Structure formats: C-alpha cells, structure tokens
Amino acid sequence: MTSTRKKLTEMARVIRSKNSGPFTLTLDILLQEPKDFYALREKNAFTPELIGGLYGIDPKMVQGIIYFEPAFAVKIVLPRPRPSGSPGDTDVYGAQQHAPLLDLDFQW
Fold first, then answer.
1. Is the pTM here over 0.90, yes or no?
2. Cβ 101 vs Cβ 54: under 8 Å
3. What is the pLDDT, as a whole number, of residue 2?
4. Which of 5, 8, 74, 78 is 20 to 30 Å from the Cα of 67, by its Cα?
C-alpha cells in the first residue's frame, strides 16, 4: 500500500481564525469531506505539539483542540500574543492568524 500526502488546503473548505475573546484566538478548520474529518480525528492529527510548533508557543499553552463532528470541523483555541486592541496588537480581530495552517499536509 502506498501512502500519499494531502494538503490541508485541499481538504478544507474553510481555514480561518478569529477572536474568541480579547485574550484568545480560535482557529477553525471546516473540512469538505467527512472521510477527511474522521481520518484526521482518528490519527489525532492536530496536537498541542504541532500547534505549538507552528505558532512558536509552548504546547501547554494550547487551550483546546476540539473535533466538532456536526460541522466536520476542528476548532483550536490558543492565547493571543497580545490582548485584542492593546498597544502593539497587529490584528485586532484575530482574522490573520490562520496562515501557519495553510502549509500543513498529512500522510495517508
């Protein structure tokens, strides 16, 4: 059996980020195919270590990774680098923080 790599951008219909309060961000990944959702969940593809590495934070700071079956979605909660709207904040809405996810690929 041969294995292949599949990019997250090929599997997802939506990859986005947004504030989930002034101190936290939510990364949302909505998958196109249920089979991809189930494969990612079964493999525990999103781990605090993966997210911590992508975002340059201690994996212990990842506050949640939720596989939400009704929407075939993965929600990841992590702290904002700065509170929303505080001095030095470059993304008040948290809408530009999903970019590190765009290069992910997974082996099947």
1. yes
2. yes
3. 64
4. 5
Nearest-angstrom CA–CA distance, 23 and 82: 7
87 vs 1: CA distance, rounded Å: 53
The 10s digit of each residue's pLDDT in 41-87 is 999 999 999 999 999 999 999 999 999 999 999 999 999 989 999 99
User: Cβ distance 102 to 3 under 8 Å?
Assistant: no
Q: Around 25, how many Cα atoms within 13 Å sit in the side-chain half-sphere? A: 24
Cα 93–6–43 angle (5° rounding)?
A: 85
Taking Cα atoms as reference points, which of 89, 91, 90, 66 lies closest to residue 77?
66
**DSSP summary character for residue 104:** -
Beta bridge partners of 5: 107
Nearest to 80 by CA among 37, 9, 17: 17
3-state class (DSSP) for residue 46: coil
Q: What does the mean pLDDT of the chain come to?
A: 95
Q: Say how many Å lie between the first and final Cα of the chain, rounded.
A: 10
